Amino acid sequence: MGYETKLIFITGRKRTGYQSDEASLEMGKVCNDEIGDLIGRLRMANRKNANLSADITEWENEHNRIYTQAGNYTPEVDALQLSEQKKATDALFKMERILGKKLPFFYGIDGNTKHFEDSCGDLLLVADIEELLAAIRKDAAGLISNGQYGPEGYRRFNVAIAMLEQFRKERFGETVRVVLWGH
């Protein structure tokens, strides 16, 4: 986990591997106290998924073999017959669905790149909304009681609490998960 943290809210259906980015919030340097403890617990839970790093690398290599950064076929795949192109992309999409069921991801700025790891190369940490909300509330209360950041506390905690309260409800059969992105 990086020095800075961003909350990325994703919705999806775990059984299908479908996911969509809903919102994000830069939190700054918040990896202390309760949030830091939560991140530590999430890292420990991720250790059992360590073998997924190899799956991610395999998927990335295959994706880069098939598609350019602009989302077009690479010259190698473009030269194939349509039936062979379809086989290659079908195999890639199957790999994506399998990974999407095991791990959260979100799309990069280009709208094409799926991220399964943060910018430090760690598997994404997914926090339970209720656990994260409790940790942020506790850290916010501690800052206010210590007189830090004035009577309202750390402004980003206030925004995060409001967002988490809105996203804690299931909508349209999709659940919301929160990725803690380290950078």
Can you describe what's shown?
46% of the residues lie in helices and 19% in strands. Helix 2 (52-66) packs antiparallel against helix 4 (82-102) and helix 5 (129-145) packs antiparallel against helix 6. Strand 1 (5-13) and strand 2 (18-28) form a beta hairpin. The radius of gyration is 19 Å and the shape is elongated. The protein has a domain at 5-50 and 104-182. It has helices spanning 33-46, 52-66, 75-78, 82-102, 129-145, 155-167, and strands spanning 5-13, 18-28, 106-107, 114-115, 125-127, 175-182. By secondary structure, the chain is α+β, with helices and mostly antiparallel strands. The longest helix is centred in the middle third of the chain and has 21 residues, at 82-102. The chain starts with a strand and ends with a strand. The strands form two sheets. The protein has a four-stranded antiparallel sheet with strand order 2-1-6-5, with helices on both faces. The protein has a two-stranded antiparallel ribbon with strand order 3-4.
Summarize this, please?
The strands form two sheets. Strands 2-1-6-5 form a four-stranded antiparallel sheet, with helices on both faces. Strands 3-4 form a two-stranded antiparallel ribbon. The chain contains six helices and six strands; from the N terminus they run ββααααβββααβ. The protein has helices spanning 33-46, 52-66, 75-78, 82-102, 129-145, 155-167, and strands spanning 5-13, 18-28, 106-107, 114-115, 125-127, 175-182.
